[in-house]
């Protein structure tokens, strides 16, 4: 709908018109007249305000109102779920009336892609969200005749991290980390987790939880040279294999605080063998 506002002192080069909080599209302006295309809105009255360029004081238009009539067109009563990932991909159901006259539904500036695998009716419309900036957006219905119907129904695009468990792990990697939050999405190919300068290998993804495995903080050869050293074991005569086993085992022990070195013995070797077998049997 195009309306004409008449008066005096308009800024013809940068005139603007808002209807409560929504801007209309100025088609033509002079010092005494502004023609503006009214934005879509819900049935009811809106306060009209005039704006202009920097340093320009717009005439007082606080007494002006514009009302959208209730044409009996489509309405929305709810959207479920009413929040989802900023990445999009959330399947939603919009309920209301006369939705069979709706050709498309937009959430903010992103069209919600109609789900053709579901049967939409006069009271239910099924679609999948697309990516959008974080925050609350409102639904806009586009009818089969091209009319836009703005609603007050909100949908919130979310992305937040609330907890990371555990909060620490070994420098050699392999710590399974669970990240709790919201808005992660469900597409594993679109999720990337980085801890410091190292990425974390994604294992499972849900909209409110991501599980990943940490990688070594340093390359394997650097871990070896920085951590391995020979234990001081007095009176032991070890073969090269026994010495390597002892020093390698102690390398990993030193990565845990207050864990002393062990000296090689048949009892230690027997215990290590039993533990290795347990790990293999229960992997």
Q: How does the major sheet shape up?
A: 8 strands, mixed
Stretches with pLDDT under 50, minimum 5 residues: 220-229
Beta strands, count = 20
Morphology call: elongated
Helix content class: 10-25%
As a percent range, the share of strand residues is 35-45%
Distance between the termini: 68 Å
So how many helices? 3
Order of helices and strands: EEEEEEEEEEEEEEEEEEEEHHH
> Strand pairing plus helix content: what structural class?
mainly beta
Characterization of this structure:
- With 283 residues, this protein is mainly beta.
- It is built from three helices and 20 strands.
- The chain has an eight-stranded mixed beta sheet with strand order 8-10-13-12-11-14-15-9, with no helix packed on it. A five-stranded antiparallel beta sheet has the order 16-17-20-19-18, with no helix packed on it. A four-stranded antiparallel beta sheet has the order 3-2-6-7, with no helix packed on it.
- β2 and β3 form a beta hairpin.
- The relative contact order is 0.09.
- The model is unreliable at 220-229 (pLDDT under 50).
